[in-house]
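3.2 Worked example (two chains)
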Amino acid sequence: MIDRDKHSENPEGYYECGIRELDSGNIKKAIQAFEKAIKVNPGDPRPYSNLGIAYELDKDYKKARAAYEKAIEINPANPSTLNNLAGLSLLEGHPYEAFSLYGSAIASDPFYVEPYLEIARFYIEERELSRAEQFVRQVLNIEPENAEALNFLGVITNLTDRSKEAVEHFQGVLKKNANQPSVLSNLGTALRSIGDMRRAIIAFEKAGELNPDNITIMNNLGVLYRETGQLDKAEGLFKLAIELYPENPFPYYNISEHYIAKDEYARALENLKLYISLVPLDMDNLFKTCGIARMANRLDDVIGEMQSFIDEAEPSDPRVVEVKKWMDMTGKSRI
């Protein structure tokens, strides 16, 4: 609780209180403190900027934008606030405005690395990897040991067939802090790409210890277990992922692959049908579901899936002829 007597004529006290509350995750109390700091000293841009952060965390984007814009009105050259408003603009679907603001932040302070990192993140998500790499390397020119930039560079190099280099970048990040599950997961992916399954499993197992409920880690480790013949471990992880995340399609797909490898086609079919129910227009796996039903002698169980494939596939797709044959084998007429 804010001591009114202590802070009534002390805007710095309200501001510091807001920062503490924001750092503690008490968003509503942070907003109250920043608003009081503004009331006492409306010419200070810092409470406006942090008020914008608090409103953004509270998903009140309209008020967040107003607060950021007021901070910039008072101090147009603050790179941090320009960067925050750029991030909000991206979140709101305004990339051109965002990039203009990132440019202003960089022009204001070319050695402030956050805009470069945010631009790199955007290009990685858009799979424009050469552009992303340019901005990551600019960060590393400024801060050669920047962990986030090294992690990004690892992701980029792994995605561009430079997995050995990626391993080096991820290991560089982990030397400074070994307990980063996302970086360990990325390292596992890169090690798998170069065929080092043993160390890939070690990396994913360590990531799983640090973040045991992460579905991406579960899925990737389960696939590695399957690929290295540790089938019981693989099946256990896929089942746990399904239990924890029943609305995620990938554990169903992965466990179906596991059952296919064991020639257990009926169990594979059950899980492929669940996968298709969540990703209905994945044409390759829709066809695969029909094919596994054929192998399990259960075509009657995939009438709907076969009809969907016939309806949605390109007429020139040669697989349509095969699915029509399977449909005819059930004695059901096609619509």
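3.2.1 Second chain
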Amino acid sequence: MRNFSLEPAGNGADAICAALRVAGVDPVFGLPGTQTVAYFSGDGPTQAARCYANAVTVLERMIERGITPEVLTDQTSAHDPLNGYVPVEYTHEQAAKARAADPADYTRRSMASMERHVRAMVELQKRGAITFDYGNNIRQRARENGFKDAFAFPGFVPAFIRPQFCLGRGPFRWCALSGDPRDIYVTDYEMLKLFPKDKTGSELGTGHSAFGTRGSYTDRLHDWILGCHKHPESLLAGDFDKCEPRFGFQGLPARICWLGLGERDKAGLMLNDLVRTRKVKAPIVIGRDHLDCGSVASPNRETEAMKDGTDAVSDWALLNFAVNIAGGASWVSFHHGGGVGIGYSQHAGQVIVADGTDAAAARLKRVLTNDPMMGVFRHADAGYEEARECAERLGVDIPMA
């Protein structure tokens, strides 16, 4: 399956078609005698397919046929066995009726399907697939249903992401309140200028994971932003009238990338300056995700397999909540259960508005420094050398380290 990815989709053909219409992708084939329809997207040697099928059916059929993917994960909403998961014996339409008719029986069937789902993933891992949990708690559900080896494969954070968390790095989102896509193109252009490519990989750190090390972070940031554009050459030329999104915006135009300590505050101040100088038409709102470096306690996801065993310690999420209030964020929230279900996580969120004023600039500087700094604190305290080195490089005083 080299240069080809397959995503089983359990949310129904209508939802798939709606997403594909945005991306401009058409269905190309169906598998006779099944509920499976596949869709291709991408040009040249690398393609992706999305199929309408139950993931359990697909994985078990791959095992029967001796097909082992290079990489395997799961993104079903397993944290909610009633409303977020479709048992293998139901179609999407049948599931809707069964869910309403007998919720307890439906939940039991979901849990049984999750056990089969994870068992198949573990088998494919044994056959050589790089297998990881995307973070929706399916391993926990499988264990609860009797599969003792459900945690044989790791979550994506300990497998790939934690070195980024040690640098205070995590999701950085911004949204154009004007509703004009041009404002996002302007911010993309300025973001590329703010963080120029660094071929040495020394400035912002290199990426390292089970897939190895490749290139500087700013190289990949440029690839990411340019990859969001249908005509990247127009963005590089600053010709915003000719820019188009590679995938259509849904709702207000927005962008996301990953930035860390010493980067988020610079980006926030740059966005505020664009508002101040009226290079964009309206304020920019900046947020992130409940998945972040220092705002979460989630032992089956963000804080899985912490070096010091503090997987379930919620102090850091609560401290992050308090720090963002003190820093002056526009909206600070505290949540329970994001992604993995109630009882399995606590996390703080923050949003801050760049309205072009000096007062906003001061708040942006504080919030977008302190928020990622909590991630560096949290990982340095847990004994991660990458976090301690980051703190030393950026002049962050951490007495307990």
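3.3 Remarks
The chain has 13 helices and twelve strands.
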